[in-house]
Amino acid sequence: MSNDRIVVGIDVGTTKVCALIAEVSEDDHLEVIGTGIVPSRGLKKAVVVNPEEVIESIVSAVSKAEQQSGFKIVSAFVGISGAHISTQTSQGVVAVRHPDRQISPDDVQRALEAARVVNVPNDREIVHVLPRHYVVDGQDGIKNPIGMLGHRIEVQTTIVAGAMTSVSNLVRCVERAGIGIDSLVLQPVAAGEAVLTEAEREIGVTLIDIGSGTTDAGIFVEGALVYACVLPVGGFQVSNDLAVGLRTPFAAAEEIKIRHGYALPELLEDDRTIDVSAFDTGDGRPVSRRQVSEIIEPRLEETFELIVEQLDKAGLRGLPAGVVLCGGTAQLGGIRRLAAEVFRAPVRIGTPTGIYGLTDQISTPAFATSVGLLKWGLDQEFEPAAARGGLPLSGIGSAVTNWLRNFLP
């Protein structure tokens, strides 16, 4: 099988590692031919805390995907998250080089590199330089200037940066697992590729990816990411609240959440009794489903309110397309209604679209980032990187590369 028609995505999450292999058809559709999904170990709130365990998890997921597809993974697009992530705006301006004034991919790439020259603390590293729009000789609102005529090209961008240590540790774990990195991709960026419509991205939408260890929010306006934040809370905290409230082990609380969890007690129609002891080896007392819901609701409400605070600070609350929820916790019953009450906006649950093949296991909100990595990779591999603002590993920063040289054999 030709490597030229293969895209690989690896989502290294707090509770699972998902490796997906997709073949690109002649009409540029993604057909998933290999999936590897394993429990994740060695991460806390999306940040590496035990490299050896992370490496083992990545190797296990990659091995499963390779066995199913018959394809050897050489490199992949890798998701990144964590509370260390931040965004800021920047612009770059360059003169068009060609004598006939036709803008080339090189001109666009130089403009993006110019935007990259911003004040970033020494302990932080740029992960993305994402174009919002271009300006050619004063003409604003241009999405892709390649082929246009002009003397001067300007790009307005969103810069995504992360803590150098966190970025470097993730890079090192993936590379020690034997996988090259085509590009690191911010998880809200990837998830947006999988679950948002073009119309939503254009008129303005808030994407919220509720994972186990973190909750990622991304704001898209006029087709581009304009703001992102990552909160160090997620489904883990919901399960932990249940473990404390029901006096049961965490694993049992997680299972109760998945099977019986509901986000809004007042909307709960089925108030059956749950035998907690059926989920652990202790003497857990019976509880009603409403009691479980009453433990879940405040934690989710608090999480949404924290996001509202961030959106208010950025002046980006109340976008026309409302809110799209994804991530494993987005599968809880009643969560859409709860989010609508907190955000006072229309809310829908986002599921991955636009993929074919082995999709039964990954066509849920929990795999939005995993599928989105494939779609991002498709655009990067089969469109000029300059048109999308994608940077290869070399673009992540020489500081990371130099840091790694001190440790790699």
Outline the fold blueprint:
Layout: E1 6-12, E2 16-24, E3 30-39, E4 43-44, E5 47-48, H1 51-69, E6 75-80, E7 86-95, H2 105-115, E8 124-136, E9 139-142, E10 152-163, H3 164-176, E11 180-186, H4 187-195, H5 198-203, E12 205-210, E13 215-221, E14 224-231, H6 235-246, H7 250-260, E15 273-275, E16 286-288, H8 289-314, E17 323-326, H9 335-343, E18 347-349, E19 355-357, H10 368-382, H11 385-388, H12 398-405
Parallel strand pairs: 1-6, 3-19, 6-11, 12-17, 17-18
Antiparallel strand pairs: 1-2, 2-3, 4-5, 7-10, 8-9, 8-10, 12-13, 13-14, 15-16
Helix pairs in contact: 1-3, 3-12, 4-10, 6-7, 6-8, 8-9
Would you write up a description of this structure?
With 409 residues, the protein is an alpha/beta fold. Among the domains are: 3-83 and 165-193 and 353-397, Nucleotidyltransferase, domain 5 (2-Layer Sandwich), CATH 3.30.420; 86-160, Dna Ligase, domain 1. The protein has helices spanning 51-69, 105-115, 164-176, 187-195, 198-203, 235-246, 250-260, 289-314, 335-343, 368-382, 385-388, 398-405, and strands at 6-12, 16-24, 30-39, 43-44, 47-48, 75-80, 86-95, 124-136, 139-142, 152-163, 180-186, 205-210, 215-221, 224-231, 273-275, 286-288, 323-326, 347-349, 355-357. The strands form five sheets. The protein has a six-stranded mixed beta sheet, sandwiched between helices. A five-stranded mixed beta sheet has the order 14-13-12-17-18, sandwiched between helices. Strands 7-10-8-9 form a four-stranded antiparallel beta sheet. A hairpin with a 5-residue loop joins β2 and β3. α1 (51-69) crosses α3, α3 crosses α12 (398-405) and α8 (289-314) runs parallel beside α9. The protein is globular. The two termini are 31 Å apart.
